[in-house]
Design goal:
The chain is of the alpha+beta class. It has helices spanning 76-89, 91-94, 108-126, 130-133, 143-168, 177-203, 210-229, and strands at residues 33-47, 53-68. It has a domain at 105-230. Strands 1-2 form a two-stranded antiparallel sheet. A hairpin with a 5-residue loop joins strand 1 and strand 2 (53-68). Helix 1 (76-89) runs antiparallel to helix 3, helix 3 (108-126) packs parallel to helix 6 (177-203) and helix 3 (108-126) packs antiparallel against helix 7.
Length: 238
C-alpha cells in the first residue's frame, strides 16, 4: 500500500488528472486489516453511603485482535474462537482465585496448558454425534464425510500447537508440574493417535465403525477425568 496510490499525488489543481482511489482503504485488498476489540470487565458489589448497593468496575482488560479481512471474516465463529483463545492465554482473568482447600495452586503456564487441552478435548467429545457419523456415504461427495475429516484434522493441529507451547515453557514450570504435563500428554496422545487412524480411514473413502468413535469418547473422557482430579480453579461465569 505504501508503494502505490497511498504514496503518490492523487489530486491536481484542476482535478482533471486526479487518480481514483480503489474501493478498499488500501490499494491491495489482501492487506486490509480489521481490528476486533475484546473487553473483559470484572465487577464487584459495594454498599454506598446511603445504604444502596452498586456494581463498580474492579478490573478491566482490553485486548485487540487484528484480523486479515480477506481471509478471516467478522463472524460469530471468529469472535468465539478469539474468546476461546483469550480464555487460554489469560487464565487469571477467567478463573476464580484460589481460596482455602478448594483448589491447588498451579502456575499460570500450567493452567494455560490445561485450559487448552480441556477445551479441545471437551469439544471433540461433545461434537462427536453418532447421528452425523451414520450419514457418511461411502461413494460420491459427502458433506458429512468432509466435515468429519476437517474436524479431526483441526483437533490434530490444535494438539501440535498445545504441545509445542508447553514444551517451550517447560523450564519455567513449577516443581511437579512437568510430571503432570507428561501424564496429560500421554493421555491426549491416545486420543490423537485414534483420531489419526479415523482420519486415514475417511481419506480412503471408507466409513469408520461407530464402535471406534465410542472408544475415542472413552479415551477423551479419561483426559477430562484426570484434569478434573487436579482440582484446577473454576472458570468464572460469563
Amino acid at each position: 500500500g505504501l508503494e502505490k496510490n497511498r504514496n503518490v499525488k492523487i489530486l491536481t489543481l484542476d482535478g482533471a488528472g486526479a487518480r481514483k482511489l480503489p474501493k478498499y482503504d488500501w490499494p491491495e485488498r489482501l492487506v486490509y486489516q480489521t481490528p476486533a476489540a475484546h473487553r473483559i470487565i470484572e465487577k464487584e458489589g459495594v454498599i454506598m453511603d446511603d445504604g444502596s448497593q452498586k456494581l463498580i468496575t474492579k478490573n478491566e482488560l482490553h485486548v485487540v485482535v487484528v484480523r486479515p479481512k480477506a481471509y478471516v471474516s467478522s463472524t460469530g465463529t471468529s469472535w468465539a474462537n478469539e474468546t476461546h483463545r483469550l480464555r487460554c492465554e489469560y487464565p487469571d482473568v477467567h478463573e476464580v482465585p484460589v481460596s482455602g482447600d478448594q483448589s491447588v495452586s498451579y502456575s499460570a503456564n500450567f493452567r494455560r496448558f490445561c485450559a487448552t487441552v480441556q477445551c479441545d478435548i471437551f469439544m471433540l467429545n461433545d461434537m462427536t454425534m453418532m447421528e452425523d457419523l451414520q450419514k457418511m456415504k461411502l461413494q460420491g461427495p459427502c458433506i458429512h464425510q468432509s466435515y468429519e475429516l476437517k474436524r479431526l484434522e483441526h483437533f490434530l493441529h490444535r494438539k501440535e500447537i498445545a504441545f509445542a507451547e508447553v514444551d517451550l515453557k517447560r523450564a519455567v514450570l513449577c516443581e511437579g508440574e512437568g510430571t503432570l504435563v507428561d501424564e496429560i500428554k500421554r493421555l491426549k496422545l491416545n486420543v490423537t493417535t485414534h483420531c489419526s487412524k479415523l482420519a486415514e480411514i475417511i481419506k480412503e473413502a471408507r466409513r469408520p465403525e461407530l464402535s471406534s468413535y465410542k472408544e475415542l469418547q472413552t479415551q477423551a473422557q479419561e483426559v477430562l477425568t484426570f484434569l478434573e482430579s487436579l482440582r484446577l480453579p473454576q472458570v468464572k461465569p460469563r
